[in-house]
Amino acid sequence: MTDQIETAELHGQPVLKLQTPDGAVALVSLHGAQVLSWTPAGGEDRLYLSPKAVFDGQTAIRGGVPVCFPQFAGNGPLKAHGFARNRLWTLANQRAGKDYVVVTLRLEDNADTRALWPHAFAAEMSVSIGGGRLDMELEVTNTGKAPLSFTAALHTYLKVREVESLRIEGLRGLDYTDTADGGTLKKETGVGVMVDDEIDRIYHQAPATILVREDDRAMGIHAENFPDVVVWNPWVDKCARLADMPADGFRRMLCVEAAAVREPIELSPGADWWGRQSLVAM
Ligand SMILES: O=P(O)(O)OC[C@H]1O[C@@H](O)[C@H](O)[C@@H](O)[C@@H]1O
Fold this sequence. Notes:
282 residues, globular, Beta-galactosidase, Chain A, domain 5, binds 6-O-phosphono-beta-D-glucopyranose, nine-stranded antiparallel β-sheet
């Protein structure tokens, strides 16, 4: 470990603390390879972590950036969002420079994952911070002898001041699957998407960059190799049903997820795929 990367604990669970000399800080949980908090240089924490999140080394942690793999949501036989967020990943690589820190966590198949999903794979999640940026990259390699396919997402919980006061820009004209309306396919007509009710949408063929604009700040969200963008907020009733969310938690969060859902990723033996999401605090 360098002094820019330390091992620590959060609520009894192992985390890596990343810091750059300019003051950017992130916490990454080994459970799920999940970024739990990210403070850009000179700023404040821009990721939502539920104060009721469960840290027991098994349950998925509510907040930060859960890694959904090898299945997005309930789109397949596995439990919601696959198993990667419920597994302990190992530190595979780390590097620090004058203005950046990067760590790579790794998860491979074992008897337990093969019982759920009969494939050999290696997944690596790289997290890099510096200045006002957070870069996250998920790479998956088919290490087996048969083809495999999966869906995936970086399920980013943005921390927002008041969800009803923000606007999501860049989605106009896109087709989306409205999960909150039985999976109906619709077209986005709004110039800016506002949130004043439950929203659970998978936007397809999304542009590389979208913007979440708040009254006094914004977040630029850039994705590569993730063709879908999921926008999710549970709103009052669904939030009340989530045991690991406070009643008013939905007001402080907005999930904007870089995802590959509509077209599963197909990997032949030996092939690999990567997808990236970057957040730029403005
Ligand atoms: O409660 P979970 O399993 O973390 O899922 C949260 C939400 O994740 C979103 O990605 C899905 O679109 C929602 O349908 C889902 O409710």
